[in-house]
Specification:
The protein is α+β, with helices and mostly antiparallel strands. The chain has five helices and seven strands, in the order βββααβββααβα. The chain has two domains: 1-42; 74-171, 2-Layer Sandwich (Nucleotidyltransferase, domain 5). α4 packs parallel to α5. The longest helix has 17 residues, at 126-142.
Amino acid sequence: MSKLFAKQEKRVNKKLQFNILYLSFSFELSYFFKTLKTIVMKLSKRTLLKLKNKNKKLKPTNYKKLKRQALRGNIKGTLNRPRLSIYRSHEHIYAQIIDDINSKTLLAYSTLNRSIKLNLATGRTCDSSRLVGEKLAELSLKKNVTKIVFDRGPYLYHGRIKALADGARSGGLEF
């Protein structure tokens, strides 16, 4: 019993929480014991975000999901007022107009589209983002979509995100 490792995992199953204690011995197999707890702690998303630095057990992918949900809040797109969602990579910017109730993408445009790619050298400038916003607004007006809800995602409203929003506004979209 020179090495003893203990690890606790919490699982919620039918409003009951199990703590699983793993014991690992040298030259022996791992054994686990289950103890039943009836107390379930419910933490808000903001509390979990604050505890992220203190709780190292929170995986980075889960933290990204919590951050995205906390920033997005209650933004939902409907058929009358769909959601303009933006994704920004290092090289390009992508924009979609989404109806969340029917789970359908109505329009999509990016700096990878041929008309923008031929006009500009790179897709990482504010000018290219403004052009994406204008083209997206032009396409959405053809489909009779004039009012949208702007979803910046986890990005700050600054730089390329702001340029895309300004381009969409100048193209005729209202938000």
